[in-house]
Amino acid sequence: MKKYLDESLSAQERAEALVAEMTIEEAASQLRYDAPAVERLGIPAYNWWNEGVHGLARSGTATMFPQAIGLAAMFDTDLVRRAADITSTEARAKYNQYSKHGDRDIYKGLTLWAPNINIFRDPRWGRGHETYGEDPFLTAENGKAFVKGLQGEGRVLKTAACAKHFAVHSGPEAVRHSFDAKATPKDMTETYLYAFEALVKDAKVEAVMGAYNRVNGEPACASDFLMGKLREWEFDGHFVSDCWAIKDFHENHMVTSSPVESAAMALKAGCDVNCGCTYVNLLAALEQGLITEDLIRRSCVKLMRARIRLGMFDKHTEYDDIPYSVVSSLTNKRMSLLCAEKSIVMLKNNGLLPLNEDMIRTIAVIGPNANSRAALEGNYCGTADKYVTFVEGIMDRFGGRVLYAEGCHLYKNRISWLAQPGDRYAEAEAAAENADVVVLCVGLDATIEGEEGDTGNEFSSGDKNGLLLPESQRILIDKIMKIGKPTIIVCAAGSAINTEADADAILHTWYPGSEGGKALAQILFGDFSPSGKLPVTFYESTDKLPDFIDYSMKGRTYRYTTDNVLYPFGFGLNYGDVHVTKLEYRDGMAYVTAENKGDRTDEVIELYIKDYSENAVPNVSLCGFKRILLDRCAEVTVEIPIPDICFTAVDEFGARRVFGDKFTLYAGTHQPDELSCKLSGTPCLSMDITL
User: Fold this and answer.
1) Pairing status of strand 34-35 against strand 46-47
2) 312: alpha, beta or left? (left if phi > 0; alpha if psi -120 to 50)
3) How many C-beta atoms lie closer than 10 Å to residue 455's C-beta?
């Protein structure tokens, strides 16, 4: 028996034995994302590129969960882990069947390039909805949960997760191939590297993906600084370039003069898999003496080790018998629905919600996102076997009449090009005039908020120019609001939006997945209470934000900003009336008691810490959270661990340690800032801690 087939040996030993049998040409070929078969050694072809940021993506039918930003809004790492577990189960089920049919194409492997743990530092960034928001702690906690869900706890990896994009990467999309993101040592350690370190050290993520841009002058996919951090953290996986990022070395960053030099630079730095085509030049680089055979074999060993860790060369694994019937099963879709219900954030409610069905005969559901599947999906998504749009969910749930009107195009000034501008406003106004309540469904979708190169991206290569809705929708809102009917604004978007509307209620749904319409209807009619919390700050305007290309954290996110806040990070209303009544802290654990004086509701207990040392962030920092369920007049006490790292700060040189001994711990259902307390109508409790 070949040594690499001996399952009693370690993955490292087996990988070394396998690569030792390869010619250098064969080994070099395995460093491409579309690695060919090595038939004489029994190695089938393998495509490393697969996606799964919120469900298995781009591989046909799969369960579609809320986009990652919506998963973050749940403030529930257990649900995030369960969503990832379902994603990996479906990936395995499909891989099992694809392999039987000899199909080893793109999006059909077991290496999922997720999660995206970049910091959503600026609301203009189009890809921010792929992330877990603006806070390093929340991002790390969700990222670890997602990795553990994808990779499983079996003898072999269920699937391999990938932390991307390492590391200082959050727009602008239009210049990402040539941009140099400059960040101070303090911001690097405090913000940009925090989640990556956690996923490497704590979650043992199998892969890390580099970014397109440079970081302080170095291409991210060949950065001595970033690769040094991975070594410092004892990263034990493999590194993959972002797609066609290595060709940017010579075409855009101008740090090399040819594809051969670029391939050599990336390989020497430690990039093992090239998503792209530049590594076809590895043998030329070898011939020119720019790299050695040992470098090629070093990376090939890491890649074969990953495939062995996935059980690809084993006789049988515990995942080989996962049946195809699990794909988009009823059980999995119920989990998607549960996530959607818990991700929706209620930003405003003057008492209209939940709707009283006994008082309503007709509801007008209006807007470009009312019957839009794209408004459910986000980007990097699979194909659901059934979609429930917002209007469909309301029609299914409500026993009375539903009047539907599209109202306007998502961003163009007319729907029919043969018509005059504003061709659907009159229909929308008629629907509103003939209804008791209006549900106005506005927002964005991934065609105008997404990645550079995605379909559409009409405005700034996927980035937003500001926080306002497209003009067509602003006109629609103005016309409907003037009619004077009770109005609920439902905004589907993956980022902060200022609707500028004084509606009776405002719900932010993110991109809630295939069950989004059902989840919305259940919340509107009080079957469930909204309970999502904002994982990003909703600003009033981008005019007061730092320049988009400025990567300094000053003036950004709830930890640093001092004004310009419309709705704060961590904010979200519900149908209950939950108050924190007691707070204690002992030996790294917070004990929080909460009581509910209102309707039965989910709620999130949030912990924030204020460090008074000179190196601390100027405001508070999230240091713990826990989702609870409370009946009317019920009380519960929960334990929430506070990691030691939450008592540390970072100095200007990037060194992290405990600098002070005086802290204040806050507990509530939101941040302890004045605006959060005012909008929520509830205070936070606090206590001083001396180390």
Assistant:
1) antiparallel
2) alpha
3) 10
Three-class DSSP category at 11: helix
Residue the block writes with tokens 């106004």: 429
**Residues 462, 530 within the same domain:** yes
Between CA 474 and CA 481, with CA 477 as vertex, the angle to 5 degrees is 145
How far is 37 from 637, CA to CA, in rounded Å?
57
Each residue's pLDDT tens digit, 350-369:
999 999 999 999 999 999 99
Tell me which of 258, 291, 326 is where a domain ends: 326
Other C-beta atoms closer than 10 Å to the C-beta of 91 total: 30
Q: Render the burial of 672-686: b for 16+ CB within 10 Å, e for the rest.
A: bbeebbebbeeebbe
Alpha-carbon Rg of the chain, whole angstroms? 25
Omega of the bond leading into 354 within 30 degrees of 0 (cis): yes
Q: Are residues 251 and 194 in the same domain?
A: yes
pTM over the 0.85 mark: yes
Let me know if 320 is a catalytic residue. no
Q: Name the residue range of residue 514's domain.
A: 344-536
pLDDT tens readout for residues 443-484:
999 999 999 887 666 667 899 999 999 999 999 999 999 999
Catalytic residue among 242, 454, 463, 504: 242
Q: How many domains does the chain have?
A: 3
